[in-house]
Amino acid sequence: MSNELDSQRLPELERIVAQALDAARHQGATQAEASVGLQQGLTVTVRLGEVDTIEYHRDRGMAVTVYVGQRKGSASTADLRAEAVLASVAKACSIARYTAEDPCAGLADADRLAREFPDLDIDHPWALTPDEAVERARECEAAGRAVDARINNSEGATLTTHRALRVYGNTHGFLAGFPSTSHSLSCALLAEGEGQMQRDYWHTVARRAEDLESGVAVGRRAAQRTLARLGARRVDTGRMPVLFAPEIARSLYGHFLGAVRGGSQYRHSSFLLGAAGQQVFPSFLQMSERPHLPRALASAPFDLEGVATRDRELVRDGVLDGYICGSYSARRLGIATTGNAGGIHNLLVRAPGSERTADELLRQMGNGLLVTELMGHGVNPVTGDYSRGASGFLVSNGTLAGAVHEITIAGNLRDMYRQIVGIGNDVDVQGAIRCGSLLIDAMTVAGS
Q1: Which of 88, 120, 161, 424 has the most Cβ atoms closer than 10 angstroms to its Cβ?
Q2: pTM (2 decimals)?
Q3: d(C-alpha 11, C-alpha 64), whole Å
């Protein structure tokens, strides 16, 4: 095999997948699926103007799953030579003969598989040399350190460029693949003043290098965020409105997605068990899945099982329309797959006609807390109980009134979702969930 990662290698990967599927048939599998992936990338970190690390990443692998009746076996290998592929298939078939039967096991239904493959514009290789990457990272960090003399240390600026090729096929006759890229730049700085040392960061990520924020902008934003945290104090314990910044609000919707995944539902391990058709959010909130947005970070023509991805309204007027399923979890629930094996594809959270600017949300809140960072993992996915360390800013009469830290915010996610009273138009598009600021009417804030 060639060592270069190029989209022209897709036919080569397709032949490897076809070889695995043919071998599975010959060894008695009634169904089989296989995927092959190649990845490579460059990561450079500069700290205090000096090169800290230069890492070149290269990875490859094949995974195969076979079904002998309702028995399942899987194997994988990083060796893509023909003999290694055949040996992996043999291992998977051997495993399948000893596993228990599962009536829900099997490939995705053939009529659900993708037949059309739109151009999603998600492959934009960046021909960046290590020296060029170092200079871009150095420029980013230098811009941040130059903002203020109180910026006296740095955790560094990191630039990463990544490209992947993936091909998936199964014995229903599906065989397809596509290349994709992602690039990112981040900077984390430290400041000293008012008897404290504080840290903060900023980052940018995109499919295409031209869509990244400039290194100077990232460095300066990291510096501004860090300086704003100087003088942070604790707050008195009590209940108050809480506004989550867009990049933090994403995690709250992530907990919701985890609760409505098919696996959580059929295992009865969700605080939103059986919630389809119920009012989960206020009536002004809508959630839409849009898998085919050009250059979006979670766009894909098909999911990990080859099922076609489609536009979907997951939440309509605050009501949960259904669950997020791959084929197996869908069968366990007695429904059809939603094309989400592997996760969600561009979830858009909106409040049409009701969205506000960040400043308007601050004025709506009046007095409360703006959260810009969360820490810890105090979320119970079964009960929905939520308790996490946080930092951010006090808000007084609709304006920021000083940084706060060493606090805990707590509530129950089901209650928190119903108590959403505002959605921002300051949408952060740097992830699979695209959302703006999120204002919750009241949460318990524990401080001094």
Answers
A1: 424
A2: 0.94
A3: 18
Return the H-helix or E-strand segment holding 43: strand 31-47
Number of domains in the chain: 2
In a domain, 1, yes or no: no
162 & 305 share domain: no
Locus of tokens 């970070």: 297
DSSP state, residue 355 = -
> Which uninterrupted H or E stretch holds 179?
strand 175-193
**Phi, then psi, of 111 in degrees rounded to 5:** -75, -5
Q: What token pair was written down for 159?
A: 């630039």
Q: Over its length of 448 residues, how does the chain's per-residue pLDDT go in tens digits?
A: 344 677 788 999 999 999 999 999 999 999 999 999 999 999 999 999 999 999 999 999 999 999 999 999 999 999 999 999 999 999 999 999 999 999 999 999 999 999 999 999 999 999 999 999 999 999 999 999 999 999 999 999 999 999 999 999 999 999 999 999 999 999 999 999 988 999 999 999 999 999 999 999 999 999 999 999 999 999 989 999 999 999 999 999 999 999 999 999 999 999 999 999 999 999 999 999 999 999 999 999 999 999 999 999 999 999 999 999 999 999 999 999 999 999 999 999 999 989 999 999 999 999 999 999 999 889 999 999 999 999 999 999 999 999 999 999 999 999 999 999 999 999 999 999 999 999 999 999 998 7
Among all chains, which residue has been given the structure tokens 């910044």? 245
How many helices (H) and strands (E) the chain has is answered by 9, 17
Task: Say yes or no: 243 and 320 in one domain.
Answer: yes
Strand bridging mode 238-244 / 368-375: parallel
The residue segments making up the domain with residue 162 are: 7-228
